[in-house]
């Protein structure tokens, strides 16, 4: 038994249909802490007591539709599922909690049990994690390669002009986030730009700050290839 790499949405959907307990690790190759979860799951695969469990892993940023659907706001995150339903989850590195939850659910085969509701992450907590997912987060319609509205296209152009290092969330893919963030931020429209978890504003505010010069000093910048090379050489 091995940990299966789930590299597309279709592969993921087929994998989690099982009636048996399924454990899926959402990871990022740049997050060193994810290796601790990989080690735990690899060890579980070798043990007879987990013979009825199937293990998988997903590179969260490479399958964004799946990550958004299941509210993956941090890595590592581990989902426990049956019949495509979440029965539990572990956000962050907590190997003791992970092992305990896998053992707990191994013999509980009711996907509609209270656990599905009990362990559903509160929306406000999920939104706060999303706004802090990166130092600079843009909630927009579409994505930088394919903006779905003129306002989103313009704000992407501004950020790219500064070579800003930012991540985005497509609010058209998740209505719960789309409506919830409006209430949490008390800001009724999109796009919305967040820096270090704090709302900066929408397009008009961003344009004003850009024109005044205030925005540039607030934005985290992408490292150039040369900067990465120099940093690597100095280690």
List key phrases describing it:
Glutaredoxin; elongated; 2 domains; disordered C terminus; 235 residues; 43% helix; alpha/beta; 11 helices; four-stranded mixed β-sheet
Q: What is the CATH C-level name of the largest domain?
A: Alpha Beta
Poorly predicted ranges (pLDDT <50, ≥5 residues)?
Answer: 111-119, 228-235
Average pLDDT metric: 88
Q: In total, how many beta strands? A: 11
What is the overall silhouette? elongated
Order of helices and strands: EHEHEHEEHHHEEEHEHEEHHH
Superfamily (CATH H level) name of the largest domain? Glutaredoxin
Give a short summary of the structure.
The protein is of the alpha/beta class and 235 residues long. The chain has helices at residues 9-15, 34-46, 64-69, 95-106, 114-118, 123-131, 150-161, 175-185, 203-212, 214-218, 225-234; strands at 3-5, 22-27, 54-59, 77-82, 85-91, 136-140, 142-143, 146-147, 167-170, 192-195, 198-201.
Notes on the structure:
This protein is an alpha/beta fold and 235 residues long. The chain has two domains: 4-107, Glutaredoxin; 123-218, Glutaredoxin (3-Layer(aba) Sandwich), CATH 3.40.30.10. Helices cover 43% and strands 21% of the residues. It has helices at 9-15, 34-46, 64-69, 95-106, 114-118, 123-131, 150-161, 175-185, 203-212, 214-218, 225-234; strands at 3-5, 22-27, 54-59, 77-82, 85-91, 136-140, 142-143, 146-147, 167-170, 192-195, 198-201. The strands form three sheets. A five-stranded mixed β-sheet has the order 1-3-2-4-5. A four-stranded mixed β-sheet has the order 9-6-10-11. Strand 2 (22-27), helix 2 (34-46) and strand 3 form a beta-alpha-beta unit. Helix 7 (150-161) runs parallel beside helix 9. The longest helix has 13 residues, at 34-46. The two termini are 38 Å apart. Mean pLDDT is 88; it is low at 111-119 and 228-235. InterPro entries: Glutaredoxin (IPR002109), GRX_PICOT-like (IPR033658), Monothiol_GRX-rel (IPR004480), Thioredoxin-like_sf (IPR036249), Thioredoxin_domain (IPR013766).
């Amino acid at each position: 038994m091995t940990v299966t790499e789930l590299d597309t949405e279709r592969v993921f959907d087929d994998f989690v249909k099982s009636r048996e307990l399924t454990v899926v690790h959402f990871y990022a190759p740049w997050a060193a802490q994810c290796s601790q979860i990989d080690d735990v799951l690899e060890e579980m695969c070798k043990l007879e007591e987990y013979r009825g469990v199937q293990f998988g892993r997903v590179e969260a940023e490479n399958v964004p539709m799946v990550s958004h659907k299941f509210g993956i706001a941090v890595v590592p995150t581990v989902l426990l599922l049956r019949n495509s339903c979440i029965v539990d989850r572990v956000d962050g590195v907590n190997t003791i909690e992970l092992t305990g939850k896998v053992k707990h659910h191994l013999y509980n085969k009711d996907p509609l049990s209270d656990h599905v509701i009990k362990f559903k992450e509160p929306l406000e907590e999920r939104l706060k994690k999303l706004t802090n997912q990166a130092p600079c987060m843009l909630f927009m319609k579409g994505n930088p390669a394919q903006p779905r509205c003129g306002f989103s296209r313009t704000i992407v152009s501004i950020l790219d002009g500064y070579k800003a290092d930012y991540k985005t969330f497509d609010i058209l893919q998740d209505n719960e986030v789309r409506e919830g963030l409006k209430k949490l931020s008390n800001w009724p429209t999109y796009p919305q730009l967040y820096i270090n978890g704090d709302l900066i504003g929408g397009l008009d505010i961003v344009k004003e700050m850009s024109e005044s010069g205030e925005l540039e000093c607030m934005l985290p910048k992408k490292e150039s290839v040369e900067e990465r090379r120099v940093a690597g050489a100095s280690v």
